[in-house]
Amino acid sequence: MKFASVLAVAVAATVVSAETNAERMARGLPPLAPARRGTPVARAKRTSPSGGSGQCNTGSIQCCESVSKSGHGSVLDELLSVLNIDIPFDTNCGVSCSPISVIGGGSGANCNQEPVCCENNSYNGLVNIGCSPINIY
Predict the structure, then answer these.
(1) Cα–Cα dist 32/35, whole Å
(2) Which residues contact 113 (CB under 8 A, 6 or more apart)?
(3) What is the pLDDT of residues 49-104, one digit of tens each?
(4) 75 forms bridges with which residues in the sheet?
(5) Contact 101, 109 (CB under 8 A)
(6) 118 Cβ neighbours under 8 A, 6+ residues apart
(7) pTM of the entire predicted model
């Protein structure tokens, strides 16, 4: 008998928690707070922003004339097609890139376009794949 009582309470609690905010508001009740999803690790704050110190863990720092995402009908897509490069949709790519040195002086440390850190620089700077903007100033 006790098991049946506990089971009935558990089922009732499940039914109540499954109602939507629209149903609650129709009955004159306030809406429930949004459910928090994910793990505590996913919600953890970073101690410092990535790339903020001008470091590049995946390759050398590049200066690109433009950076755009693949698959949006841009000049980048035409260039990737001509070079027969197949990359996933929405991958950041740099076009006309050249390496720069943050430590060195002179023109090598200047980047008037967009400083980025790219994962794949195997196309001699014509197209760099997997680029993330960085701050070198």
Answers:
(1) 9
(2) 63, 64, 65, 66
(3) 444 445 576 667 888 888 888 888 888 888 888 888 888 888 888 888 888 765 55
(4) none
(5) yes
(6) 58, 59, 62, 94, 97, 128, 129, 130, 131, 132
(7) 0.50
